[in-house]
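I would like you to help me understand the sequence and structure tokens below and explain how sequence relates to structure.
___
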Amino acid sequence: MGILGWLYLFARHPDDVRTLVQYKLWYEPKRDITNPAEWEATGYNRKDMKRCWEFLDMTSRSFASVIKELDGDLARATALFYLALRGLDTVEDDMTISDEIKQPLLRSFHEKLQTPDWCFGGSGPNEKDRQLLVEFNVVIAEIALVQPEVREVIVDITHKMENGMADYAHKAVMSPTGTYIDDIEEFDLYCHYVAGLVGEGLSRLFAATGKEKSYIANELVLSNSMGLLLQKVNILRDIREDIDDSRFFWPKSIWESHGFKHPAELRDLDKRQEAIWVLSAMTLDALRHSVDALDYLALLRNQSVFNFCAIPASMAMATLALCFMNPTVFDRNIKIRKAQAVNLIMKSTNPRDVAYMFRDYARELHAKLVPADPYFVKISIACGKIEQWCEQHYPSFIVLRTAQGGRSSVSDRATGDARMRAVERHEKLLAAKASERGEVPPAPRQADDDQNVPIEFFLYVGLGMAIVFGFCAGIIVLVTRYTN
């Protein structure tokens, strides 16, 4: 970002400048896969694996960095798992490959993972991940080197996914309108094949590499819901791009019930209000998986695994709140601001903070609701379930504070919450009974009254003043230059 970009950002979103600067100054990658000390786990010293890491950067903008920060050999296993499925997905997405060629190729893709030196050069010249398939032999060579339990997971999930993809790809070809998802149940099944199975595979990899307890591999419902949440938000956000590419994933039963004969009509300006109601239905469907996602995150114990799962989940909720009631979704692809994404990355470190972010985005989404929305009540209930989950697991009237020495303490005098008043009455009752017995009543717990101003506050103030003075000085220099 150049100086003009920073000035524009400061004028429009001054808080974003603080967040980005804070990220630049304090955020450090958890590991460097190129470090010779990491080579045993990452395999970066091998030519084929080094190329696989390069392909990961080329094919994944959002997942590459978090995959690299996974502990030990889990990073390499996950990278290879991702590349195997990306190769499969590239074949399925390529509209230049005829169905006669695509069907047998998809249904035997798991066998290709175990066929040395196999590669595929038949993708269309404009297919963005074409080169991965051209050099797919490097992925196959590295999959052969992982531990058998990991290889079994990669091959098994690929086998399950390829058949589902092949079924839907064939149905799309045979459909006269290009639409091939009829209702919510079929939409769930499609998303299970392309994303839910990814969640299942990752859970099994977490267990196989010993980074999580073995029971996580059996949490199939929660793993599936994690995948469906991310996939459905992506499908919702990418509607304009998918329509332009003649790919139609929104269920027919939803848009047809609002008077549309074809999903391409969603971009028509004269039907914008009906399109907004369809968007509400898709939002409601994605929200169904949010509580399951929170349940899944609460089970994770490894910090790198938690970050890996929590960051995309938080971004999905932020994207859902951004897209809801936003007609721009039908005009162009939209996404959250970079500073917002950075803020989510820094905050997605523990289940409580992530749950509160889910709650805040649910509140933001609920605030956009209008009574005329046919899904008003159902969306309100879905948002309420997120609120209920957060309050049940992390009550808002219990506030965590950081005491001196960096240790966390609990302050339950931080708010005037009605529940806190009930606690106070209970404490007074206990004290009265203790006095009747002649005992010394227990002292009530006090709030953390430490009012020391953190050093970061002064850094932020100083940085803000420096930016303001720099901006003013630049204006003065420009005015002086053009007036002389």
The first strand starts at residue 399 and ends at 402.
